[in-house]
Amino acid sequence: MRQIAISILLLTVLITSTARADEQTDFFESHIRPLLADHCYKCHGPEKTKGELRLDTRAGLLKGGKTGPAILPGKPDKSLLIEAVRYKNADLQMPPKEQLTESQVADLVTWIKAGAPDPRTDSSLAAVDEIAAARKRWPFTPVTAPAPPECKNKSWPVGAIDQFILAKLEEKSLAPSAAADKRTLIRRATYDLTGLPPTIADVEGFLTDASPTAYAKVIDRLLASPAYGQRYARYWLDLVRYTDSFDARGTGGPMDCAEAWRYRDYVVNAFNQDLPYDQFVRQQIAGDLLPSSGLSTQHSGLIATAVYAIGNWGGGDADKEKLLTDIVDDQIDLTGRAFLGLTLACARCHDHKVDPIPTTDYYGLAGIFFSSHILPDVGPKTNGPNMLKIPLASPEELARRDKLKAQLAEIEKAPQPTEFTRQSFTPMREPARDVHNIPGLLALKPATKQDTPSATFNTTGKAVAFVTIKMPPRSVAVHPSPTGGVAAVFDVAAATTVNLTAHLADADPNCGDGIAYRLIHRSGESAKILAAGAIDNGKKADLTAGPINLAQGDRIELLILPRAEYSCDTTLIDLKITSTDAAQPAHDLVDETLADPFATSTPWHFDQVTADPRIATLRAQLATALPATHGLQEGGVPGSPQAGVHDVKVHIRGRYDRLGELVPRHFPTLLTPADRQPTITKSSGRVELANWVASPANPLTARVMANRLWQWHFGEGIVRTPNNFGKLGTPPTHPELLDYLASEFIKSNWSIKSMHRRIMLSRTYQQSSLNPQSADPDNLLLCRMNRRRLDAEAIRDTMLAVTNELDPTPLNGPGLKDLNNPRRTLYLMTIRSDRTGYRMLFDAADPTAIIDRRIDSTVAPQALFLMNHPFTTARAKKLAAQSATAPDRITWLYETLFSRSPTAEESQLGQNYVTQRANNGWEQYCHALLCSNELFYLD
Amino acid sequence: MPLTRRQTLKSFASGFGTLALANLFATESRAIPIGNSQSAIGNPLPHYAPKAKRVIFLFMSGGPSHVDLFDPKPLLTRDHGKPLPFAMPKLVRTKTGNLLSSPWKFKKHGQSGTDVSELLPHTASVIDDLCVIRSMVADNINHNGACLQMNTGEQAFSRPSLGSWLLYGLGTENQSLPGFVVISPAQPAQGAPLWSSSFLPAAYQGTLVSDLKNPIDNLKNSTFSTKDQRDELDLLKSLNEHHREKRAEDSRLSARIESFELAFRMQAQAPAAFNIEDESAATKSLYGIGEGMTDIFGRQCLMAARLAERGVRMIQVYHTTTAKRSSCQLWDQHGSLRTELTNNCATTDKPIAGLLKDLKSRGLLEDTLVIWGGEFGRTPTAEGTDGREHHPFGFTMWLAGAGIKPGIVHGATDDYGWHAIKDKVHLHDLHATILHLMGLDHEKLTYRYSGRDYRLTDVSGRVVKEILA
Questions:
Q1: Looking at the whole model, is its pTM more than 0.80?
Q2: Which residues of B touch A835 (CB under 8 A)?
Q3: How far is B205 from chain A (nearest CA, A)?
Q4: Nearest to B25 among A316, A857, A869 (CB)
């Protein structure tokens, strides 16, 4: 207790003393730095150093230029800088073109008077010393393999872990607790590794196995169970802000992370197949660039990088440059906290205030992510971007599809005269009025009444807008179908010679890939193409042809055809036919049609057109979308200012419109001295980054993961701030033990399963939790096991397991919305915009945040869910029905739910309750058991 | 001494001490305590005497047009159809056309003589209670980022919302009800991140009421009678007492036992809090309940008043649904300004004025802060022929009630309603002011997360003293 009191005291002191410094720093950051950056850096910064003066570093200010130091801290009136900005000395006036305002000058005076506090670390000077000093401190020192200490009690420890724990307990004259009984132990181990309760048979098997390896066998059985990966994947997903969908408004759409589930399943497989942790890390950072995944599942490397795509960066924005920097910030935050246990993202706007991470290091790392992309493009200004979808197919399959696409393009580009015969055309006669509830908007559809193809007529004198389409006053538009075209057809009544002019315009520029068109003169079985081509999305075309000799019965056909994609192909059309003989009437598609759109007496009609059968076949072959994943690819977002592979400049105060020095891509100097920095030129640098993070020489990676594994078994880590090993994190309770675990982790080829065995076979882990000694109330020294509440997943899975309803098979698909589905809770859909569901109620991870430790809340709405939600009451009913066949119902229930027999008193309590009820007695009794503390807390 | 109606309403949760509730949360990442009191859901002391005890935030989702509602611009009318006479900022969403004068007339109202559009006759009738801020400024030009910033101070990443900060700082006054309620029949902008507790404990997040008929989940049991349920809870208590015998030191176990008792009381009491049918016909008609257009939003506002009366700390009322349509951005008039803005005003004007009048008559306006606004305003320039684009550079919000100078206009935009030019109020300043009125110093209300102290106002924010009574 005293230790805690002291550390709280220290913390308070630290906070008070930093508070004042913070105020001064804030003043510098809010008033001085922007002023210097805006008015001085241009000539006295990294690019130019006029008068040999630099004002972008503290050292530069103090050293000054040709005329001496720029400032004397505390003495504004003696500082050259102040003299210059006051504009009183005709020979010394700065900035030369534009005098500062009075309040800006006053700010500089205030600042210098206060001693010119300046948090800018000069990466070439003082900072180097600070960083070098920090490198000598835990946790930035290399991982060691400390020998376990000697203990007085020689009989208790069964391995190094126990020696490290016992030594500390003995220092405080504490003794470890007795071993947990076998029932408690198998229950603990089963929940720990699978998130599920042991069955009655599991418990009996363990009780009857008297061999010394009985417990080790249980651990091996559990580790081999597919349920293990489903349990541990969830811990990892918490750490990487995993979500199945960004926003309920667009779930499954192109802007959503609809393929995220593939990453979820990748993580499940990685744990189940004991993928070495260093490879697991490498694949997530650069799996798209590495040769092999080491997993039995295909494309794992590509899928692994999706972790960087499912980020939390607020969706779309008109401000695309901000969008790009926000994405990179999310990616750096993830890399820092999940893999390295460091809050690197703090250095986005200013040098990290506590750990020696200057902004130059942030932007050194940022360059790597700015040189990679998770989006196909930045999207339109009015909306968010689509997510990149990387096809999951063999190179052969991709090549085959490219070939098909080329064939299709070829057919579309060079149409054969026989491409369409007269039989390809069928008139559309199905009228529709007041389309989209717009009076005067009319349409013709095929007899099948399907949505497309169609012809739409704006008969009003006003422009109309519907869906994403705009039609000008008095206009005609047509829309092709997925498999064929649409045509305006003119029937020639009498022989004549004509000239043609046609006008086409895409009426729906928001989406789609444009259309293809043909203007055809058909005479009997022969057809002549007068014009053919394509227009891109949002574009127009004007066509002319003639003079053409027409015979009676001939036709002029204006065809509109879809390209690869048909959904936004509404096209405005007009066609004028003027005879060379001025006495003959001219014909105008729009005028004559709009006079009476549904009349059959005009020479115009609108036909649906079945395309060249080869086109349909090719389209069908290409229509089956390839499975795809989100993920990282090389090069900045295509078409954006960050496209390609490149270094980035420091964003002063995090602003992309205030750029400082250009920083080569590199790793944080704190962790990698200059002589060991890589040279990254041709690629993004992700491979280098992946290898660096996953290196045994990286002091953090193994320590951070060993600590997490410890935490997942004990409820608390050796470092109790698992995502922050920096100065503001909590120091380790057992630093030598953590180093021992980290070194063993590396030695075991980063095998997570072997770490589970090592931890669970210790006597430390097998202690009872029933040891109410008050000497160590927070159990920092582990003289007992921590009692843990089941997490949201284990609670729901338990309810389904004890009623024998749980379907444990892997889902291999998108998350499920229905709470009543029988799959494991891992597969319940998470949507960032929705917090109303079951998961959030029981403190499951908030998918907008990097969660290293679940909050453990107990609130009335949880009780309400358990008391009243149909999910719980249905489980109670099922449980009551299942217990009915047991010889002793209450004993069966206790063994199923709690892995133990009831006491006589407990049996009596149950019997009394049930017999006093007129009906539903067993159901209510089962319901109470399902709500009980014993089910929710694991000893 | 007879209890007043409000005292009675607030005391119905008695019997469950704050200490037990404070223990309901077992998490290490506790705040640095505020003052010397315990933070979290107990009742920690504010930094100084508060003027306001609760907030009702009326959120017009989509961005209401300031130049058509509260900020008349004669030059905009004069120069209709001409280009904006100065350069637009670099940050634009889509390029808008020339100046579009407001199709509506403004008149001065009340003793204060504040201008209000003819679209808002009911609001005009209570104008002397309002402080209209015409110089609001925000930073984001899209709905998602702007709504997020208006609610959390941050545009892209997950941060605790205003309501969560208030609960964290002040706790709750009624332990049978959620302390932060969001009433929104449809999802506004990106949804839950707007009322998220983010890294603050989950208990501080807003509770969403989207189904006005069944506001709180799981309050009814369709299987067992109340008596059966009571008996079952007694059985559960006995089971739990057996379990606790060997584990007496673990306070979480008793907290969980208590949580079931609280839940049982909530079942009985919470529905009444939300049940607006208890109100008189006169009160309902004050809000326009039962009258086609105003019915839904009227119900939302009356529910807000009832929750305020029962000590809910923050109630956010999103206008997302009318009788005709439901949208996350109902006030987003890129087109159809003339019809849609008219509809929006017709559906909200009477309920909002009704709320202010009702709060006054219940004696609640003196310690309730009412806020009206959206995530931004709209461009004085035209989008198409009948629309306006998003506009965070200068727009209007109003405040009323506790601690606010009534009947004033604060700040101004330029001659065309584009930039805020006088007494700018950034939304960080608004947040600082709200916290101030609630007795909290925005620079001291911090939470340590991931090695850093976080604030609602980040590194900015200034209390707008000029509008304080």
A1: no
A2: 191-192, 195-196, 205, 208
A3: 9
A4: A857
Rounded to 5 degrees, φ, ψ at A528 are -120, 130
Tokens of A517: 């068109």
Taking one residue from A and the other from B, the number of pairs with CB-CB distance under 8 angstroms is 243
Q: Is B196 on the interface with A (CB under 8 A)?
A: yes
Distance CA A368, CA A361 (A): 11
Report pLDDT digits (tens) over B324-372: 777 888 999 998 899 999 999 999 999 999 999 999 999 999 999 999 9
Which residue from A minimizes the CA distance to B459? A26
Query: How far, in Å, CA of A177 to CA of A472, rounded?
Result: 83
Helix or strand holding residue A615 (H, E) = helix A613-623
The ranges assigned to domains in chain B are: 216-274
Which of A4, A310, A859 is the mutation pick for testing B, counting most B CBs within 10 A? A859
User: Which of B158, B190, B203 is the closest to A247 by Cβ?
Assistant: B190
ipTM above 0.85, yes or no: no
Q: Is A787 helix (H, G, I), strand (E, B) or coil?
A: coil
> Other CB atoms closer than 10 Å to residue B255's CB: what's the count?
19
CA–CA gap between residue B406 and residue B403 (Å, rounded):
9
Distance between CA atoms of residues B110 and B133, nearest Å: 17
Residues 6+ apart with CB under 8 A from A595: A602
DSSP A65: B
Close Cβ partners of A147 (under 8 Å, ≥ 6 residues apart): none
The answer to whether B132 touches B410, Cβ cutoff 8 Å, is yes
Q: What is the CATH number of domain A420-610?
A: 2.60.120
What is the radius of gyration, based on Cα positions, of chain B?
Answer: 23
Q: Is A867 on the interface with B (CB under 8 A)?
A: yes
B366/B463 Cα distance (integer angstroms): 20
Q: How far apart are the C-alpha atoms of B368 and A892, rounded to whole Å?
A: 56
Cis amide linkage into residue A46, ω under 30° from 0: no
Residue A33 forms contact with B (CB below 8 Å): no
Task: Please tell me if residue B181 touches chain A, with a CB cutoff of 8 Å.
Answer: no
Tell me which residue of A575, A576, A580, A573 sits closest to A550, measured CA to CA. A580
Query: Considering Cα of A526, then A528, then A534, then A535, what sign does the dihedral take?
Result: negative
d(Cα A706, Cα A718) in Å, to the nearest integer? 9
**Gap between the Cα atoms of A812 and A835, Å rounded:** 24
Task: Decide if pLDDT at A29 tops 90.
Answer: no
What pLDDT was estimated at residue A127?
A: 59
Q: Which two tokens stand for residue A778?
A: 């927070």
Query: Quick check: B200 pLDDT over 90?
Result: no
Pull the structure tokens for residue A795.
């609670």
| Sign of the torsion angle spanned by Cα atoms B160, B166, B171, B174 | negative
